[in-house]
Amino acid sequence: MAAVRSRGQLVANRAAIAAVLVITLVFLAPIYWIGSTAFKPRALATTVPPTVFFTPEITPFIKLFTKRVQLTKPVDQETRDAAPWWEQRIIDNGERVLRTGENVQLSAYPSRFMNSLIIAVTSTVLAVGMGTFTAYGFSRFRVKGEQDLLFFILSTRMLPPVVVAIPMFLMYRAVGMTDTHIGLIILYTAFNLSFSVWLMKGFMDEIPKEYEEAALVDGYTRMQAFFKIVLPEAATGIAATAVFCFITAWNEYAFALIMTNRRAQTAPPFIPSQLGSGVIDWTVIAAGTFLFLVPVAIFTFALRGHLLRGVTFGAIRK
Amino acid sequence: MTRLDPGSRAAARGWSDLTIRNMFIIPTIAFLIVFNIFPLIYSLGYSFTDYRASTNQAANFVGLQNYRELLGDEFIWNNFVVTAKYVIVSVTGQVVVGFGIALLLNRAIPFKGLITTLLLLPMMMSMAVVGLFWKLLYDPSWGVINYVFHLGDFAWLSNRDAALYAVAITDIWMWSPFVMLLSLAGLSAVPKHLYEAAAIDRAGKFYTFRRITLPLVAPILLIAIIFRTMEAFKTFDLAYVMSSQDTTELISIRLYKMAFQEWQTGRSSALAYIVLIMVLAITNIYVKYLNRVKER
């Protein structure tokens, strides 16, 4: 940075710092607002003027996890005792909050959240695994039409999801794969694979070839050299790629909306569907949203150093 | 690039390099062909038929009728106009805001790393979920936005004219940080001695910006613009969750409704192909610029 030379520049610098702080606060305000609404008592969620100070409570989360049900026969004690402890805890709290005898059940949110987790993690592992091998192949061996193949791989990512979704829906329906975990996992893997290859190729290209050559001279086979020398060197790249694939799969909406409806539905289409008509309990929506954002926020901080290359497909080297 | 001599003793052990290469590359290519290219070929066939996935009736071949009707349909053209408007508004907004923040951030600022990371949070989120919580912020009766800006009960999302801008504002909020990131990378790559030379020549601030900063940042800024244009063109989640106005019906939304609500499978396949060709055109521009920047 150029040294501050004059009084005018000093003032300009101070003004810039102030502006940056204000902008940051403005950008974070919506996130703060959704986070704080998730901990508000229902009556304070929609007040005018908006409520800023309040005693936080976890009622919205309890309401998020439970629902009132009309049952002809109450759930018997045996069934309840058979449920895992966390489910019992949630239902107990739900009964307290919703104030209805025994007719409280677990809502669909925990299972949607779990679906998101299962689908995002599995497809990430597959996409990063395949992507790492392929990137190594492209990085180290002569491949005919390498540029064209890489462009082909990238181009699969450029399509609007809805375009691919129409034929995929028909094909999945024909083989009975709509509303299955495996169906979404395959789609997300295909979606993330191109990204994974491109990003990993950037990392692979940076690992000096001499490392493997030395290993080969020492008597390793190509595969041994790959697993024992290259993979450990690529570990940070693999981690960064994995987090990006995870975030993409975690946030995906269009495919999930089209391909699932109950069993395998993930949280992004589920949360908006809870709006329905009638009176909306915004604290519950906020709680669902907030909980869904937590993993992403953690990952964003965990990989902030690699973020730039990730979001730009490695097009820009730091 | 140096390659291992395939005849060497080391390479002869274990699998050959050729086998390993094929094993590493072919499954991925095959996977992508099966799950990306094959479906597209499949729907190309349907685009020439009147097939409806909601009925059991067999598909009838109708030739180019779907394409002819779609290209002559003023409502579809309106969807493209809405999409173009949305792309222009949101990308322009992102460039102005993102590049502006980058210019401000491009100096010794305390907690710069933390601030940059915090600004990245919006773009790491799900567009559907973001759209949902901005609905709360935009609410005409108790929304924070109307309260802070004293807008009374201005109904952002149910106002036909404002809805598209409301969605674009949310998009700008989400993706300005992306433009900012790339701009920052570009700005930090401008050699400092150029500024020093300009200072010695007593060049004005604006002159320095126009003649030194802008030309050197332009290529990277272009990448950001093309990237964002493509993404904005594809937008579905945000607008779909936030608003149901016909003034916010982007082409992806029209496509979704045609395919999965009206079940006009054949016709929507044809529309998908029209969109596809447009995306490929934009992609080609993107790759052209990407290569140009990389060759620098």
From TrEMBL, chain A:
Alphabetical UniProt keywords: Cell membrane, Membrane, Sugar transport, Transmembrane, Transmembrane helix, Transport
Name the record gives this protein: Multiple sugar transport system permease protein
Cell compartment(s), UniProt: Cell membrane
ABC transmembrane type-1 domain ranges (all copies): 113-303
SUPFAM superfamilies: MetI-like
Organism domain of life: Bacteria
Pfam families assigned: BPD_transp_1 (PF00528)
Bilayer topology term: Multi-pass membrane protein
